[in-house]
Design a protein that fits this description.
Length: 315
């Protein structure tokens, strides 16, 4: 008899094929479905579920985990687990796994791409070619992106991969985080001080209660009218209202954003601004990386059901 798994998010076809071949895969009525419908589904199927597959941006509500009495593992197809109450999972004796490392390079690449998009005004330059303006007009001049003071909020795997790429840009690199790391770069224990010392500020820290909205109005004002913010981590780390105001009022120069507070909803005010570059949370969205994430997620599930140590266990 195969183990039963509840799938909360789509995965690549290749990953799906393995899931369907190996497990009995169930899907439940979505979060938007009437409560009664979800409850009826849980009454009928909840006790069968041994594993949940979910995305980093989605996680699992504790109330749902509590309705799955035989749940043993939540396998996250992503590195972030901020949508999961880890203490609650510990209490429920549920393991959690994620997919670190395999997505680091793609996310770091996107951070650099967003910086270049904003500073070199590439979206406007491309529109200029596509709409036939080139023969008759010149696009607005951009700004040099190299040789600047780069600040990185969070110096874990992704922050360090951003720094490695920035090493090729000249300039200087500084960072903040809970602790100083063994690196040649300057450490600031205060985010506002880092912002004041940066031309481009990259947000690459994990989302948690401790990092919620830490990039606030004061940090944005410290970054200043020539400063650029790049966020490839989580929308919750930035006070989005303060960010929109700072961009509209030109209190910062621009922003490159892959993540938003209320995804997939983007503040309408951002859509009309030419000093921002916007992406729909695609940091890890290459075929290669999504394939590797799926494989690691499957490895964690297999290890759990074989009683082996999970390759990338969070708790
Ligand atoms: C994905 C992510 O969007 O890894 C994460 O934490 O946010 C992204 O890689 C998502 O998790 C895909 O399911």
């Amino acid at each position: 008899m195969t183990e039963t798994l509840l799938q909360l998010c789509p995965v690549l076809p290749a990953t799906q094929t393995v899931l369907d071949r190996t497990y009995t895969v169930l899907r439940m009525p979505s979060r938007d479905a009437p409560e009664a419908e979800r409850n009826a589904w849980l009454d009928a199927h909840g006790a069968k579920v041994r594993a949940v597959v979910t995305g980093g941006h989605l996680g699992i509500e504790t109330a749902l985990a509590e309705r799955l009495p035989n749940l043993g593992i939540v396998a996250v197809n992503g590195v972030g687990y901020d949508r999961i109450d880890i203490e609650a999972m510990r209490r429920l004796d549920v393991r959690v796994s994620n997919t670190p490392d395999v997505l680091t390079d793609d996310v770091a690449d996107l951070a650099i791409a967003l910086m270049l998009n904003v500073m070199r005004r590439l979206p406007a330059a491309e529109a200029h070619v596509r709409d036939g303006s080139w023969p008759t007009a010149q696009p607005a001049l951009a700004r040099r992106a190299s040789g600047l003071r780069y600040g990185i909020v969070g110096f874990g795997r992704i922050g360090q991969a951003i720094a490695a790429r920035l090493a090729g840009f000249g300039g200087s690199i500084a960072y903040t985080g809970p602790r100083r790391k063994q690196t040649g770069h300057t450490y600031h224990d205060d985010l506002r001080a880092l912002a004041a010392a940066s031309d481009v500020l990259f947000v690459a820290t994990a989302a948690s209660a401790a990092t919620a909205r830490i990039v606030d109005r004061a940090v944005l004002d410290a970054l200043g009218p020539q400063g650029v913010l790049v966020n490839i981590a989580r929308g919750s780390i930035v006070d989005e209202t303060a960010l929109v105001e700072a961009l509209v009022e030109r209190r910062i120069w621009g922003a490159g954003l892959d993540v938003f507070e209320n995804e997939p909803h983007v503040p309408p005010a951002l859509l009309g601004l030419e000093n921002v570059s916007l992406a729909p949370h695609v940091g890890s969205a290459t075929g290669e990386t999504r394939q590797a994430m799926g494989a690691l997620m499957l490895d964690n599930l297999a290890a759990f059901f074989d009683g082996r140590k999970l390759p990338t266990q969070v708790v």
